[in-house]
Amino acid sequence: MSNAFKIVTGYTGEPHVTAQQDRYINQGAFGTGCVVLPAGNQLALEIVSATQLVLHDGALSMQGCVGAMDTGAYITIDVSHGTTGYNRIDYLCVRYENNNGIESMSFVVREGVGSTGTPTPPSYTAGTISAGDIVVEAPVWRINIDGLSVSSVARVANVVSSQPQIEQLLAAYTELLAGKAFMLDFNSGDSVNTARTVLALRDTFLFKGYGTFSQDVLGLATQQQAFGIGFKNSSSAMVLLSICGGKMYYCQYSNTGAGTIYNPLVLTSNVE
After folding, report:
1. What is the pTM of this model?
2. Separation CA 157–CA 235 (nearest Å)
3. Which of 88, 94, 126, 229 could bridge across to 145 with cysteines, CB 3.0–4.6 Å?
4. How many angstroms from the chain centroid is the CA of residue 103?
5. Could you tell me which residues come within 8 angstroms of residue 210 by beta carbon, excluding any fewer than 6 positions away?
6. Three-class SS of residue 130?
7. What is the rounded distance in angstroms from the CA atom of residue 271 to the CA atom of residue 227?
8. CB-based contacts of 152: which residues, under 8 Å, 6+ apart?
9. Taking the domain 19-155, which CATH number applies?
10. Domain extents for the chain?
11. Over the stretch 218-270, which tens digit does the pLDDT of each residue have?
């Protein structure tokens, strides 16, 4: 039997950990694509002039290959002028290179072609690091050029969640699977009206129900069907944004029966 399987995180008496072994570990944590790590300024891209941007500090993983900028560091990114009446899409790409075994990472701008209609994103050098490709690129930011200058930027490489964030999401999902999406009782005078929750994650919830609100809570002459979103401040108080009877209401409410009503807005056809 060949000894192809080797220890990585262990002492062998000689240097033995390779970059590819480390990349395998990172792939297990961050995936095999290109993602920004939740650290530093998360490689934020700031527009500073018509053709100049600043990439702030942070780190990313491309196919498990991690690159980073120290805290407070930044890179100035220059893009070419556009053309009046034309739109263009550029990509800010991270570039991996292997020059005779010496590996490096940097950022390059890949420029698209201007169009009077919908522009096409530019091409870049895709590849697989573990397969031995000497140049591999992946887009990190999309740069939109409207006319002569940069109009906006948008992330292409998403920011991955940290372990604590993942644990919170899993805990909330587990609560939903266990049927622990809470029911909410709103006291209205002497009567109790229940909003049946359709989705609840921690203190934020969506609700709907008939006869949920009465006059002393939302100023309705009669109880009507309502739906909306809410935030549970504590065990006895919450904030609600509700659509009911053709109006939109924002109120703070306590289950003691006390409600503070804010001016209802009559919904019209042009409300988006």
Report:
1. 0.69
2. 39
3. 88
4. 30
5. 223, 224, 225
6. helix
7. 17
8. 47, 144
9. 2.60.520.10
10. 19-155, 163-266
11. 454 455 566 777 776 665 566 667 666 666 666 665 554 444 444 344 434 33
